[in-house]
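Before anything else, study the sequence and fold tokens given here and see whether the fold suits the sequence. Record follows:
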Amino acid sequence: MSNVIKDEIFGEIKNFETEVEWLGRKISVSFDGGIESDWSEEKKVEEIKRVIEQFKIMYLNQEEWDTKMKDLVSDYGKDWLCVDDEEELEEFIENIHENSEIELSEEEIEELKREIVPERVFRNCIYLQGLWVTADGDFTAFYYDNDIFFLGHAIMLSGNVNGELDCDGEVG
């Protein structure tokens, strides 16, 4: 399928996917959620245009949406640290320094030694990598962390542009 849809905000959307700037970082967005394979091309394009309009609700309010989603994901971050010894802890702290822009305070390092992930640390290490959006306004968001906590996986949350959010801590 090689459909191209032109949008005044996102430009050319090819194959129902695009990359957009989200709080200074490129994320991928897929608009083909809920598209049936037996639909005509015209029907698919019309559905995708509806999906794009739903996504604009989030895109035009990025800070608000990112805060809401991080609030929910952060509830699951408290239990992501498991180190066996001082050496593993040092490696973990080094990983934070290498893969995030956060500077740890002495207090935060002490909390990490007690295997407590300070919320500020967790929130600043995770970022939205991608979204899968449907015409109903439903979406799945994928948060990554540069292999600091999730070890190459993403934590996923689902929601709706009406503000409903759900995260069961599923890692994919």
Q: What stands out?
A: The chain has a mean pLDDT of 86.
